[in-house]
């Protein structure tokens, strides 16, 4: 069933074998898929339940009647539209910044030989190893000193200076690209930058889609950053907005779930586009192994 | 290869320009609406607060209220701004992790002018010098403020003889009971158990287990050690602020807890407790009739009204052990307003919180507190007609409010390690209820832990 | 350190630092520094100082509000005597030991499954990624319900096949396994990275293997896994770093209980820093963790020469 790339020999057996294979694959995917659907389906079903039913125990998966009013209520209970625009602003800038800067840095770490490279790379990795709880306050103080607190700058500008996670990820992908390719390009007179731009980047499209998706998602869901850097409710983000449904004296579950459902939509849409690049990676572009 | 530099530099230049663009533009663009015309529901801004004339002092106010309470707070702030032309308060709802937000802001030298916090933070923040001693303000503007409040409330806000926090709203705890089930099982629903012994005696009839031994219905399952210790006369710290976790009455409380854990399979009980009262606050088993007794606060009355309108219930004060116990025991906590030491406009902030607490403003406060379903910090507010009407509407409310004046109303010891103490006390209870430790051991461990924590905090 | 450090490209002659550099080496150094300059700038501006400061704090008592006071190695001495510190280390090790390997196996398997040429694959992929994007505030309640010993779906299924399910989140012995299982639902993120990695494997390799008569599992063992190893390596390192710093679910769903069985290192650190005002103590904890992760990472890097295969280096 895991025979991903088999090229059957005869046409007859191909179709028959193919049908079985497809069937088995679908069964596996559907069974597993149902398990993975739980969180989302549960979120959606709670969003559609009347409040009295949310507390039913044991929980019921399918609402007695679909109650759509939680959606309009949730989206007007907090200024959700404003939050979405704010969050999109942060996410898109951070996405652009991270993609460009991380690609440059990853190339420097993966494809150019220079003394000190490995030491710097290790230092870069080590920045992820110290728990952020203890650097949070000093970083805040730095941003405060340069007057960025209270704006989106602390949430966006560092993205233009590369993210360690993404640099590492892209480095791994760049390393799998045959060295002969870039060397051939250089022999043809390509500069380092052109090699990066014209040879390496196009080959790493799936990796880029991943980086874009992940940065978007991280920033979309980021809670701590907006919480400590923003002090104006008009600038709040979606993740801060979701907290507005959780109260000291009880949570508005129906609205929380409705708002959460809406909040996942942009990521689902982005994922749909990103995963398209997985269909035709470089394997079909004819690069020799 | 020579030509790498140029395109590269242009690339970096573009990056820097983009970054710079954001760096320069963002204070204006996203916040542009601040003085704009659009009235946002999230932003309390009123006409009197227009900064155009530059007269009004800007006071930043952080609170932790969300959902409907946040909207209520916003409207209160609006009201203040309208009635106080010289001051403009801007409210900000801090959700999720208020401590982290406050501490980073404090470290960055830019805390809010005023903040509403749970009372647990008062002693530690006062000890660290993070919040201002309010005595000078009180002496100037409200010398009788201490006597104006309920004694317990004053006690919570006082650290080392000075007042550091002004109350906003209070909570007490009492016992809910399900009249329908009591009747069904042959008890008089109008005569709930007054003592622990009576409560214990009822349990056999009230609990229901299924074939697998899983719990179908709970009579009562003790939880909340520190809260229940009030009915047993327990004591958590002496006059010098030294912890007294191993106090015999604390032990008696925990032994009573353990008697239930022994009678009913601890893991099953823990399982039931987890299903029913998870810390994400999902379902309250009392609502669905799966628990006959439940200790909780006044706010649950709203849940009962909304989610179980047909349930017949009563509210009584905590049962106490016959002979040695303390009737009308309750544990009091509340929301308090504090002014950070580094606040930029402490005077205006003080004016705001004194107004908000309802001092010499009792009629207004009585009305305001009914809107949030809160318990007043002062008997002077409670006696106002608006609040009396509120209590008469649902008589159970009176039980909670009266408890605040009870001589056996107790508070968390006002010592800097309070947060740690209560965290670990909850763990001590947990270790007994899961059969991991016996009560004596658990309290001894707790005592040791807290003593070490005190050494750690104040040792150097 | 890594395989790539040991190897010196024949065409690029990097001399020892004392000798004069060849022109090509100079150009490479300049280009290398240029390319990594954005990160260098960011590191210098926003990371270096906080790093050094937290190291300094670890030798002080610091409550954030007042200035830090130097106490030497006191924090470290106290830490080694603190039973909760050891408890949190044990919990974290337990979690790491299971969640990282399981995450890799499930992630790779799922990616292979989702890389097949089957109709509706886009939909399947989305479904498997969905749990990773449901906000934690929404999903945490679901986990409590799924793992509920009495009414939960998981124990319901176990009951159907005649097994009495454990107490999961309320049983100190089963709370960590519950969190590990929970973590597997979020394997979608790693799966995406593996999927992206699978696209880099040249089709021709499978074709020639086919001609040589290789069956499916041979193709996986001899082609797919080696070709995927750089990405597995990445997920291994990031998985280690992530699980050593495991925090969110323990904070929101179990808050350390029952009986401190889910008091993970980062959770205890966080409580010390922001609830109990021991930023110095927390910083000491952070640096111990830092050294621990660093040591493990270096070991993995060392071992990588033997099992990570970079197409670009042949």
Automatic annotation (TrEMBL), chain A:
The chain crosses the membrane at residues 23-42, 83-107, 119-143, 155-174, 195-217, 253-274. InterPro entries: MetI-like, MetI-like_sf. Its main location: membrane. Keywords: Cell membrane, Membrane, Sugar transport, Transmembrane, Transmembrane helix, Transport. It is found in: Cell membrane. It is a multi-pass membrane protein. CDD domains: TM_PBP2. GO terms for cellular component: plasma membrane. Gene3D superfamilies: MetI-like. It comes from the Bacteria. Pfam families: BPD_transp_1 (PF00528). Residues 84-274 form the ABC transmembrane type-1 domain. GO terms for biological process: transmembrane transport. Belongs to the binding-protein-dependent transport system permease family. This is Multiple sugar transport system permease protein. It comes from Paenibacillus rhizosphaerae.
Automatic annotation (TrEMBL), chain B:
Residues 28-53 are annotated as: Disordered. Residues 1-31 form the signal peptide. It holds the Pfam family SBP_bac_1. Keywords: Signal, Sugar transport, Transport. GO terms for molecular function: maltose binding. It comes from the Bacteria. GO terms for biological process: maltodextrin transmembrane transport; maltose transport; transmembrane transport. Belongs to the bacterial solute-binding protein 1 family. Gene3D superfamilies: Periplasmic binding protein-like II. GO terms for cellular component: ATP-binding cassette (ABC) transporter complex, substrate-binding subunit-containing. InterPro entries: SBP (IPR006059), SBP_1_CS (IPR006061). This is Multiple sugar transport system substrate-binding protein.
């Amino acid at each position: 069933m895991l025979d991903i790339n088999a090229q059957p020999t005869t046409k007859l057996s191909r179709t028959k074998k193919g049908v079985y294979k497809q069937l088995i694959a679908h069964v596996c995917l559907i069974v597993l898929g149902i398990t993975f659907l739980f969180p989302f389906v549960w979120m959606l079903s709670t969003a559609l339940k009347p409040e009295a039913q949310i507390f039913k125990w044991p929980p019921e998966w399918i609402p007695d009647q679909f109650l759509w009013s939680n959606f309009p209520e949730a989206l007007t209970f907090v200024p959700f539209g404003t939050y979405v625009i704010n969050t999109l602003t942060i996410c898109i800038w951070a996405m652009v910044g991270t993609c460009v800067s991380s690609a440059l840095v990853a190339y420097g770490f993966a494809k150019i030989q220079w003394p000190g490279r490995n030491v710097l790379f290790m230092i870069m990795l080590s920045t992820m190893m110290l728990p952020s709880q203890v650097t949070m306050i000093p970083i805040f103080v730095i941003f405060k000193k340069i007057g960025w607190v209270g704006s989106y700058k602390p949430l966006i500008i560092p993205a233009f200076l590369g993210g360690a996670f993404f640099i590492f990820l892209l480095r791994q992908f760049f390393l799998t690209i045959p060295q002969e390719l870039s060397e051939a390009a250089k022999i043809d007179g390509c500069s380092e930058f052109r090699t990066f731009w014209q040879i390496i980047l196009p080959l790493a499209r799936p990796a880029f889609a991943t980086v874009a998706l992940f940065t978007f998602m991280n920033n979309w869901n980021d809670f701590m950053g907006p919480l400590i850097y923003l002090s104006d409710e008009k600038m709040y983000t979606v993740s801060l907005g979701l907290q507005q449904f959780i109260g000291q004296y009880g949570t508005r579950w129906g609205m929380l779930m409705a708002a959460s459902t809406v909040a996942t939509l942009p990521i689902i849409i982005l994922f749909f586009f990103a995963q398209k690049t997985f269909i035709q990676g470089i394997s079909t572009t004819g690069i020799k192994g | 290869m020579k030509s790498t530099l140029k395109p590269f530099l242009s690339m970096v230049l573009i990056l820097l320009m983009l970054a710079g663009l954001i760096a320069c533009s963002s204070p204006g663009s996203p916040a542009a609406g601040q003085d704009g015309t659009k009235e946002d529901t999230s932003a309390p801004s009123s006409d009197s607060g227009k900064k155009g004339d530059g007269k009004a002092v800007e006071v930043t106010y952080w609170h932790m209220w969300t959902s409907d309470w946040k909207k209520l707070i916003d409207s209160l702030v609006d009201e203040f701004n309208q009635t106080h032309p010289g001051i403009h308060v801007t409210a900000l709802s801090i959700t999720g992790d208020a401590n982290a937000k406050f501490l980073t802001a404090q470290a960055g030298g830019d805390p809010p002018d005023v903040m509403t916090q749970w009372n647990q933070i008062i002693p530690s923040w006062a000890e660290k010098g993070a919040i201002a001693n309010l005595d000078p303000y009180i002496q100037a503007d409200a010398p009788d403020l201490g006597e104006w409040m309920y004694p317990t409330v004053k006690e919570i806000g006082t650290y080392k003889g000075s007042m550091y926090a002004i109350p906003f709203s209070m909570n007490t705890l009492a016992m809910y009971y399900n009249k329908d089930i009591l009747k069904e099982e042959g008890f008089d629903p109008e005569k709930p158990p007054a003592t622990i012994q009576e409560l214990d005696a009822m349990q056999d009839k009230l609990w229901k287990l299924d074939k697998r031994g899983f719990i179908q219905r709970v009579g009562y399952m003790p939880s909340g050690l520190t809260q229940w210790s009030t009915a047993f006369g327990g004591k958590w710290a002496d006059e010098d602020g030294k912890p007294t976790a191993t106090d015999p009455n604390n032990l008696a409380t925990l032994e009573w807890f353990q008697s239930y854990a022994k009678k009913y399979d601890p893991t099953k009980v823990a399982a039931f407790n987890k299903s029913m009262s998870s810390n994400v606050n999902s379902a309250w088993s009392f609502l669905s009739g799966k628990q006959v007794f439940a200790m909780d606060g006044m706010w649950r009355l709203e849940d009962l009204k909304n989610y179980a309108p047909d349930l017949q219930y009563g509210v009584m004060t905590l049962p106490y052990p016959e002979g040695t116990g303390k009737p009308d025991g309750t544990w009091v906590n509340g929301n308090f307003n504090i002014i950070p030491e580094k606040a930029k406009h402490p005077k205006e902030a003080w004016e705001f919180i004194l107004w908000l607490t309802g001092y010499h403003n009792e009629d207004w406060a009585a009305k305001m507190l009914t809107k949030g379903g809160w318990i007043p910090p002062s008997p002077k507010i409670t006696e106002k007609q608006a609040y009396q009407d509120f209590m008469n509407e649902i008589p159970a409310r009176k039980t909670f409010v009266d408890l605040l004046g009870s001589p056996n109303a107790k508070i968390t010891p006002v010592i800097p390690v309070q947060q740690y103490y209560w965290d670990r006390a909850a763990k001590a209870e947990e270790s007994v209820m899961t059969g991991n430790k016996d009560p004596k051991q658990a309290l001894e461990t707790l005592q040791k832990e807290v003593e070490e924590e005190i050494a750690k905090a104040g040792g150097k | 350190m890594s395989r790539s450090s040991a190897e010196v490209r024949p065409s690029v002659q990097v001399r020892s630092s004392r000798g004069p550099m060849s022109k090509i080496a100079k150009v490479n150094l300049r280009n290398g520094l240029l390319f990594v300059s954005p990160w260098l700038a960011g590191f210098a501006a926003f990371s270096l100082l906080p790093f050094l400061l937290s190291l300094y704090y670890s030798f002080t008592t610091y409550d954030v509000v007042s200035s830090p006071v130097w106490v030497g190695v006191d924090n470290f001495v106290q830490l080694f005597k603190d039973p909760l510190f050891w408890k949190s280390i044990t919990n974290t090790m337990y979690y790491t030991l299971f969640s990282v390997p399981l995450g890799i196996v499930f992630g790779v398997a799922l990616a292979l499954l989702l890389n097949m040429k089957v109709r509706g694959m886009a939909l399947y992929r989305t479904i498997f990624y969905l749990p990773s994007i449901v906000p934690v505030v929404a999903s945490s309640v679901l986990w409590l319900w799924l793992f509920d010993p009495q009414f939960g779906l998981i124990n319901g299924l176990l009951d159907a096949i005649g097994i009495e399910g454990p107490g999961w989140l309320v049983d100190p012995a089963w709370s960590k396994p519950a969190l590990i299982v929970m973590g597997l639902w979020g394997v979608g993120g790693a799966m995406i990275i593996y999927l992206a990695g699978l696209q880099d494997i040249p089709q021709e390799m499978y074709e020639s293997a086919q001609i040589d008569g290789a069956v499916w599992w041979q193709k996986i063992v001899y082609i797919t896994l080696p070709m995927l190893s750089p990405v597995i390596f990445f997920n291994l390192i990031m998985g280690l770093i992530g699980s050593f710093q495991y925090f969110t679910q323990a904070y929101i769903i179990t808050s350390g209980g029952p009986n401190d069985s889910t008091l993970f290192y980062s959770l205890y650190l966080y409580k010390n820093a922001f609830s109990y005002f021991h930023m110095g103590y927390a910083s000491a904890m952070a640096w111990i963790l830092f050294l621990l992760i660093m040591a493990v990472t270096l070991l993995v890097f060392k071992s990588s020469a033997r099992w990570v295969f970079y197409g670009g280096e042949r």
